[in-house]
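Internal tracking record. Fields below are filled automatically when a chain is submitted to the structure queue. Please do not edit lines marked as system-generated. If the sequence contains nonstandard residues, flag them in the REMARKS field before resubmitting.
Queue: standard
Priority: normal
Entity type: single polypeptide chain
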Amino acid sequence: MAALQGEPPAVARQRVRRALRLARQGTPLSQGEVAKKLGWSLSKVQRIEAAEVAVSLTDLRALLDVYGVVDPEVIARLSSETHVSRRQRWVTPADYREHLTPALLALLQFESEAVAMRSYQNVVIPGVLQTAAVAEQVLEWGRNRITEDQRRVRFDVRMERRKRITEDPGGPRYLLILDESVIKRHVGGPDVMAEQLDALNLATESRNVSIRVVPFEKGARIGLVDSFQILNLSDDPGDAVVYRETYGSDRIIDEQAEIDYCREIFEEMWAASLTEEATQRAIAAEAAKLRSHLDDDYRR
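SYSTEM-GENERATED OUTPUT FOLLOWS
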């Protein structure tokens, strides 16, 4: 995908933000005290630590000096990442910049660097595993909210993301938990949904993809958890972000408390879910049931 070429600035910005926040937390200084020492506003320090702005090299060095960071390798690495983080346009095609949300643009960058992704979905099959027919149906639901061009670009992005997850041997490890309702909720006609269920089981033949279904009987508390995706950018558990998407909005979250919460919930649900083998059987059974209905309709 053209949008995934080069070094992603969103990932670099996230790593600089995290390094600076950890460096400050290693001192007795508050954000306000740092701002006072540097003659900055408090909001500037807060926005840098929240990755809302790309820090300049001058500001980076000033902050590292205040925090007592003198290791030349650390300074060189953060300087390099700071340089990358300021590439505002990266190599993102104009169509993507125009028709994708800022959070989705950032997600594409994070996915390009992710070593592992953990996703929980409680409504529909996630975009990265949707068949073309299901993706068209889901995007059609938003026809009163998005333009034809937006649907076209978002469809193309889903198909490219699916290729990377299911076909690229160098892609990230992808662990997916589906609420049982997802495999029972029809998107499109029975033939469309049966094809989608077959595609889910086919995806698990990739060494990258593991899928489990959490059954209804595991309780309502799990059913109340909203969908989320955790993207690990390295083996460091703290080097991660969460992506949340609802019908009308999406966002990237980098607060450690939210990352830890989602990781805890995911592990709890993974343990409570059907095994991967039992999940494959459940998905295949749903597909067979749909096809039996199609056969009944044909006989009539």
